[in-house]
């Protein structure tokens, strides 16, 4: 429905047509942060969940499926939102709140729109709560694996701590909207710190740690690689992980900081 609105074509062009004049080191940092966040890379979510997989599960196949599905869903979401943004004359840089402006406008143009909007909000709630659970599992698994308490107790304690820490971010859309730290609201500052600093830093440390600490034969075994099966791709992957990824992340960081 979004693609049939008047002016939707401009939104599609905005979403899909690249403008390389706007590509800066800061934009690349944002892109890395968004990619790492979407794929749960750099925060140990994938490491934690992959530890629960059966031995016969193919890690490369699972990784490819996750990346492919994330890409498809991202494209569909963009094609649903940006055409409506331009059709209704909205500003595409309004941030997360745009979701609750654009989607009601879409559903208002549909038959049984209110019903579909309620269903969407329920699905959106389950999507966010399951994402929160996956993040919670990292701390819970780490604490319980070290014998520091039962899962139920640790989940409750960590969940309450996260809730308390997250309250200022939630209130930054309301009564704390005028509170600025380094020119950003509490939510924007937390989002920037996590997505554009901590996650890339986590990926940088992983890209350094894995080649240094994990033996090549162990990596091959975990990835289901042998001399006759996927070895060339494995060598390329290891080269990218060992050299290209950390160097690229460091260069972007230094450029954003104005050092180079």
Automatic annotation (TrEMBL):
Coiled coil: none annotated. InterPro entries: Na/ntran_symport, SNS_sf, YocR/YhdH-like. It comes from the Bacteria. The keyword Transport applies. CDD domains: SLC6sbd_Tyt1-Like. Its main location: membrane. GO terms for cellular component: membrane. It is found in: Membrane. This is Sodium-dependent transporter. The lineage of its organism: Bacteria, Bacillati, Bacillota, Bacilli, Bacillales. Keywords: Membrane, Transmembrane, Transmembrane helix, Transport. The chain crosses the membrane at residues 27-52, 64-90, 110-133, 154-177, 189-212, 233-257. It is a multi-pass membrane protein.
């Amino acid at each position: 429905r979004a693609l049939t609105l008047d002016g939707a074509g401009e939104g599609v062009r905005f979403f899909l047509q690249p403008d390389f004049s706007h590509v800066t080191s800061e934009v690349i940092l944002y892109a890395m942060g968004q990619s790492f966040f979407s794929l749960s890379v750099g925060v140990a979510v994938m490491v934690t969940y992959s530890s629960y997989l059966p031995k016969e599960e193919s890690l490369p196949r699972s990784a490819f499926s996750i990346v492919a599905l994330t890409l498809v869903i991202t494209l569909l979401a963009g094609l649903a939102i940006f055409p409506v943004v331009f059709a209704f004359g909205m500003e595409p840089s309004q941030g997360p709140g745009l979701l609750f402006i654009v989607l009601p406008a879409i559903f208002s143009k549909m038959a049984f729109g209110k019903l579909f909007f309620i269903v969407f909000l329920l699905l959106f709630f389950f999507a966010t709560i399951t994402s929160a659970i996956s993040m919670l599992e990292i701390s819970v698994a780490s604490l319980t694996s070290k014998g520091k308490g039962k899962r139920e107790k640790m989940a409750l304690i960590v969940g309450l701590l996260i809730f308390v820490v997250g309250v200022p971010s939630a209130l930054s859309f309301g009564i704390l909207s005028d509170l600025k730290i380094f020119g950003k609201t509490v939510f924007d500052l937390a989002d920037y710190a996590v997505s554009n600093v901590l996650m890339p830093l986590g990926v940088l440390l992983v890209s350094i740690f894995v080649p240094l600490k994990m033996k090549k034969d162990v990596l091959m075994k975990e990835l289901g690689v042998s001399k006759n099966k996927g070895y060339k791709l494995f060598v390329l992957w290891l080269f990218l992980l060992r050299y290209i990824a950390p160097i690229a992340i460091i260069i972007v960081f230094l450029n954003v900081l104005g050092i180079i």
